[in-house]
Request: fold
Amino acid sequence: MARTLEKAVGSTLAFFHGAVVRVFGPTQRPCVSMLFGIAAACSGKQEPCPPGSIRAADGLCHLNESMDSGAPDLEDDLVSITSSLSPLPALPPSPTNAYADDPAAIEFGHALFYEPSLSPSGEFPCVSCHDPEITFTDGNLTGEGNGVVARNALSIVDAEYYDWHLWDGGCDTIWCQATIPIEAAAEMDANRVELARTIYQNDTLRGDYEAIFGAMPPMDDPRFPEKAKPEPLTPDTPMHDAWESMTDGDKDAVNRVFANLAKSLESFQRTIVSSPSRFDQFAEAIAGGDRSGGGHMTEAELRGFALYSGKAGCIQCHSGPFFTNQDFANTGLGARSWLDQIDTGRIEAAEDIYENTFSGVGPYSDDVAYAESFLDGLASVDSQLGQFRVATLRNLEKTAPYMHGGHFETLAEVLSFYNELDEDVFQGERDPRLQPLGLSGDELADLEAFLLALEGGPVDPALTMPPSR
Ligand code: HEC
Ligand code: HEC
Reply:
């Protein structure tokens, strides 16, 4: 779906040819503010300008011919670009998770998301790094749990819509993703055997689990080690030895519990989605034939939209309803003092996904064939070095700092980076679609205003606290 949309946008970009060259004559009384021929600040209805022309500040229709003004030809361009970015589509299915839409699993996952005992110290539940007050992020440069994580915490709002999860696309499903922070030493620092026992010994959580997934393995049987998880990269650890001491049947039983907990977490997180932004309201008005866009966007935001889709070229990568083409790119960020681990991005993740027990092609998937066709022969190639997921641009207002390593504190800094591209590329090569933009200060402010118009309303308050029960 994303690819098709991108194609649609790509072809409409060819229509961009802005400068006003010829005056057609007034149709009605002049308006103060016009962009794309939209009478943004006008009262009273205007006749649409003839095809190939736009209404300018003088209230007249002007032929629309060169790239320079940044204003696209109204008729088809505006409608098709806007409609490629909005509305928010229906939630996609999650074929590898048979419990994705099971109400009991959603409720259980809701409880788990807020449950302190998922991290042995009790200090780092999921919500500790995904705070609903700041769009389910944590405000740190990089995540902080039991230790310091290598990357900036992603928001979970709309996460279900992305083809790939994590900054490097290391997971193809959200339930695969959930298994990672639970066992990561720098995050929750748990291990699947102890976690399964924690659930087993908690009457409420065990009751919830068994009502959905059936009987748990007898986790209080002494044959299960106190703590155990596979650590293939550091196989000399007691944790790994303990895991290896288990029978294949017990390993499988514990993995199954771990996968089911992760699937429940996905089921809950699926419900955390954007509510419409002002841009969506504007798009709805346009789709309904109201060329003023219902007055939902300011002039500055509309100028920013024109830059975004035209001269600034953001839409080359940030396309589609989530403002991402669902692909990966190397923006050529420089080094940062706090990013001490070399993070090669997509190149490693592309192969690691096949090694992951909990990926969609693994033994706990509910639809391996679907996941295989999705991965479609994915392999590592050199160009993936330093590539990260093209980030969504919805809901950025509260999610600073930005980029995979928290490189920038403000959106203005991000935009100034794209405008100048003066950082020494840390690794790999900067995507050739990125070129210094030479935008003025006013233009950068317009672009930022547009990005902020993509902020959705608050998510359902019931999701921002543990379930009441
Ligand atoms: C210590 C902080 C921390 C904790 C605890 C934590 N996360 Fe995260 N989360 C992060 C960071 C950092 C990332 C980005 C990591 C990356 O891309 O490598 C992330 C990424 C994600 C994503 C990916 C979103 C996307 O768009 O791909 C999801 C979903 C998520 N976390 C859910 C969870 C769940 C569920 C839990 C609890 C089981 C959890 N997180 C616990 C810090 C944390
Ligand atoms: C070549 C593809 C490409 C183009 C063109 C592009 N971006 Fe990006 N953008 C990315 C990628 C990839 C990331 C994530 C980079 C990273 O963290 O390493 C990103 C990240 C961002 C972020 C940070 C989001 C967050 O949550 O941290 C913002 C904001 C952003 N881009 C805005 C823009 C704007 C505005 C433009 C146009 C001036 C633009 N981008 C052009 C690929 C692109």
In short: The two ends are 39 Å apart (CA to CA). Residues 312-314, 316-318, 329, 331, 333, 388, 390-391, 393, 396, 399, 402-404, 411, 414-415, 418, 431, 433-434, 447 surround heme C (ligand 2) (CB under 6 Å).
